Amino acid sequence: MIVLDKNKLENSVLIEEADSLKNAGFIGKEQLDFIKKELPTLNSHKNILVRIGFFLLGSFLYSSICSAVSLLGISGLDHYWEIFPFLFGIIGIVGSEFLAKKDYYNHGLDDAFILGTILSFGCAVSFITKLENVLPVSIVVAIISFILFLRYIHLLSALVFYLALTLSLGYSIFEYLEAGQAILPFFMMFFGAATYFSCRKLINSLRNSYYYNGILLIKSISLILFYLSGNYLIVRELSASLARGYYEISPEIPFAFFFWVFTFIVPVIYVVYSLKSKDRIMLWISFLAIAFSFYSFRFYHSVLPIEVALTLGGIMMFAVAFYFIRKLKTKESGLTFKPDRISNSNAFLHAEALIIASSFGMKPEAKPSESPMEFGGGDFSGGGSEGTF
Question: Could you tell me which residues belong to the region Disordered (predicted)?
Answer without folding.
Answer: 365-389
